[in-house]
Design a protein that fits this description.
With 304 residues, the chain is α+β, with helices and mostly antiparallel strands. 33% of the residues lie in helices and 24% in strands.
Length: 304
């Protein structure tokens, strides 16, 4: 039997104005142990998030990602696969749980494929992950860590640039009990937006990169996290999140909807840290995090 251990971080996409372009890796991780057993069939066990909810067979997203990777590499599908998943990333909350699963499956399959996997480049991993997820802004920070600018070229190939946020950036995720499917949130977006709103977001996205990497001052971050492209359109599907963003910003805490929501991501300073809890109700969980600077990791456990 061959076993590999994969660790993948949660991510927050968009970060306000950087719609479908910016993503941040967070220090909240899922851990996956993948084994080729040599026995026919798929076995999946899940601890933590998703336990009792997700498919425990061929329909599990990590298994599907592994299968897609073996096919892409031209490697014969293994007869037996066993997964042990320790999940900490909340599902359907805008923290990149599906991207983490996709990346974990692809990296596991590559690692378990020997010489064929060694020839499957990081760019190929990124391309397949983007293909499966649909957009690069979550898979890019999951794979690379840090703050990532992601885009696709005219041929549809994904690209990324990794930046290192200032060490004083310590995001706070405010996670509600309610869930929201990404497809639902994306379905609320209009086909067209006013030119002035697009220009507004372009300026704020550029400012946000500077504020996260060069000058993380509260006033800059508050202005840099303003958005006119997606959050207001999605607000009817997550009114509690939209209201919380408004309340936090009103007391000087830079806050955005994380990804497609409904989690709220805040960037408090030491002076505004204590202002978050009074604005949050009982149905929310406040989690202090750091930026994961490493991204997904692959490890072969020592043979006992």
């Amino acid at each position: 039997m061959t076993t590999v251990e994969i660790r993948v971080p949660a991510t927050s996409a968009n970060l306000g104005p950087g719609f479908d372009a910016l993503g941040l890796a967070l220090t909240l991780h899922d851990e996956v142990e993948a084994t080729l057993t040599g026995e026919r069939g798929v076995q999946v066990t899940v601890e933590g998030e998703g336990r009792g909810e997700v498919d425990l067979g061929e329909g599990h997203l990590i298994v599907r990602a592994m299968r897609a990777t073996f096919d892409r590499m031209g490697v014969a599908q293994p007869e037996g696969v066993r997964l042990r998943c320790r999940n900490r990333i909340p599902h359907a909350r805008g923290l990149g749980s599906s991207s983490a699963a996709v990346c974990a499956g692809i990296l596991a399959a590559r690692a378990l494929s020997g010489d064929a996997g060694a020839g499957f480049s990081d760019d190929a991993v990124f391309a397949l992950a983007t293909e499966m997820e649909g957009h690069p802004d979550n898979v890019a920070p999951c794979l690379a860590g840090g703050l990532v600018v992601a885009w696709t070229d005219h041929a549809g190939a994904p690209h990324m640039v990794k930046l290192v946020p200032d060490q004083r950036i310590r995001p706070v995720a405010v996670v509600p009990s309610a869930r929201l499917a990404t497809e639902t949130a994306r379905g609320l977006l209009p086909k067209d937006v006013p030119h002035k709103d697009a220009a507004f977001n372009a300026g704020r996205a550029a400012l946000l990169i500077a504020a996260l990497t060069l000058r993380p001052e509260p006033e800059l971050l508050l202005a840099a996290t303003e958005d006119r492209l997606h959050q207001s359109y999605r607000a009817p599907a997550m009114r509690g999140s939209a209201d919380l963003v408004e309340r936090l910003r009103a007391v000087g805490v830079p806050a955005v909807v994380s990804g497609a929501g409904p989690t709220v991501l805040a960037f408090p300073s030491p002076d505004t840290q204590d202002l978050i809890a009074p604005e949050v109700g009982n149905d929310w969980h406040i989690q202090q995090m750091d930026v994961d600077q490493v991204g997904a990791t692959v490890r072969f456990p020592e043979t006992r």
